[in-house]
Structure to design on (248 residues):
């Protein structure tokens, strides 16, 4: 199967602090792949390195068989989009939903904007009635749906998801996760998803990598994690810590 994302020996350094230490992974085309670990393990830094938002000291990143350089061009952002953790921070509160969705289309010079906006809103379950509302008038779940619509509007093949539901109430979390799964299947998207919640990762992802202190601890299938068939004590401790709060 073709690799959508291939990372080899990735090092990210901030002011002499090694945030990622020689991390390697491959995500297959059409796969949903999870990154788990405690805060500070390097999960979000890895996503930011792919998008060019974190400084790569060494190692290689390839997306759809194309090796990335230091900068990302427009073609990259048409292919790879990111949904951030905080829908309150990622959307301008004083812009309408229409303006938020028009912006990426204008940047990329896409002409069929009307059709794409209607499709994107419909796909995330909001519909035309939300088009001219302001972001600050929306609930957290509605904002995250707009953020997902904005990511989908350029018709990418890969979505990077950085804790996309952690800022939402539990009932809304389930709705947004189900929406993401439906969108992935319909559009045949590839997901690389960060979460500290093992239940979410095992629900959404086929394979996952456990991270700690900027390093890969082990790579597992979701069924191995659910069945506690893990090789490392750190992963066992994560499972043990999660059992009192979530079902895995």
């Amino acid at each position: 199967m073709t690799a959508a994302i291939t990372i080899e020996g990735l090092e990210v350094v901030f002011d002499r602090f090694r945030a990622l230490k020689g991390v390697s992974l491959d995500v297959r085309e059409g796969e949903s792949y999870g990154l788990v670990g405690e805060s500070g393990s390097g999960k979000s830094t890895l996503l930011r390195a792919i998008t060019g938002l974190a400084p790569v000291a060494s190692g290689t990143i390839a997306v759809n068989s194309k090796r990335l350089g230091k900068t990302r061009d427009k073609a990259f952002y048409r292919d790879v989009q990111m949904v951030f953790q905080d829908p309150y921070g990622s959307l301008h509160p004083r812009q309408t939903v229409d303006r938020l969705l028009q912006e990426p289309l204008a940047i990329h010079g896409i002409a069929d904007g009307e059709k794409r906006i209607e499709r994107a809103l419909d796909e995330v379950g909001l519909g035309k009635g939300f088009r001219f509302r302001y972001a600050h008038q929306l609930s957290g779940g509605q904002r995250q749906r707009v953020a997902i619509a904005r990511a989908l509007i350029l018709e990418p093949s890969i979505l990077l998801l950085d804790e996309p539901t952690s800022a939402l109430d539990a009932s809304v979390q389930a709705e947004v996760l189900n929406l993401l799964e439906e969108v992935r299947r319909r559009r045949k998207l590839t997901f690389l998803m960060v979460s500290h919640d093992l239940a979410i990762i095992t629900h959404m992802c086929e394979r996952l990598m456990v991270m700690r202190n900027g390093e890969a601890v082990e790579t597992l299938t979701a069924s191995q994690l659910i069945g506690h068939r893990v090789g490392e004590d750190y992963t066992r401790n994560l499972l043990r810590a999660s059992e009192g709060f979530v079902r895995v």
